[in-house]
Structure formats: structure tokens, C-alpha cells
Design a protein that fits this description.
Blueprint lengths: L7 H4 L8 H20 L8 E2 L15 H13 L9 E3 L2 E3 L2
Parallel strand pairs: 1-2
Antiparallel strand pairs: 2-3
Length: 96
């Protein structure tokens, strides 16, 4: 699981809505996704996913948890390699 706010494109340009530590750790997830995909190309599919804001508890605003589950299932069913080593959101591939 990653976060669109943790992409290089959004990191410096946006006002943080999450803590700096979380954003940096998600940038690490993005980097790990690319590095592991390059290292194990063809053996395993590495894909980072960002479902957007999810209401993971009653106090948090966002989409239902089912939104994230549906996106993860969509990614799992996508067998082509064009998503390998990429950040995937509801609308497809997002830039790192």
C-alpha cells in the first residue's frame, strides 16, 4: 500500500495531509516496488497501490474499505506486465 501524496511529483508540491514520516515511508514503498521489480523481473509482479482516502475507522473520512479491496483485486487480476513496478490508483498507472 502506498499513497499518491508520496510520489516525487506530489511530495514537494502539496500541503501534507498526513504526517511526514508516513509520506517518507510510502516513498520507500514506491522505491522498493521499482527496485524489486527490476531485480526479480518476470518472477514476481511488484505493484504499489494507492486507493485514495479510505474510511479505515469511524472517525476517518473517505471511501469505504471495499474501495481499496476492489482495487487490490483489480490489480491482482491484471496479468499484463505494463503495471509491474508501477503505482496503481483507481484510474490506472500514476507517475512516481
Amino acid at each position: 500500500m502506498s499513497d499518491e501524496l508520496a510520489t516525487f511529483a506530489n511530495f514537494a508540491a502539496s500541503t501534507p495531509t498526513t504526517g511526514l514520516g508516513q509520506r517518507i515511508s510510502r516513498m520507500g514503498v514506491n522505491a522498493m516496488t521499482v527496485l524489486l521489480q527490476n531485480e526479480l523481473q518476470g518472477e514476481i509482479h511488484f505493484r504499489a497501490v494507492t486507493p485514495g482516502p479510505i474510511a479505515s475507522n469511524p472517525a476517518r473520512k473517505g471511501a469505504p474499505v471495499a474501495t481499496a479491496v476492489d482495487l487490490i483485486q483489480k490489480i491482482d487480476q491484471h496479468k499484463d506486465s505494463d503495471w509491474d513496478g508501477k503505482l496503481i490508483g483507481a484510474d490506472g498507472v500514476l507517475p512516481f
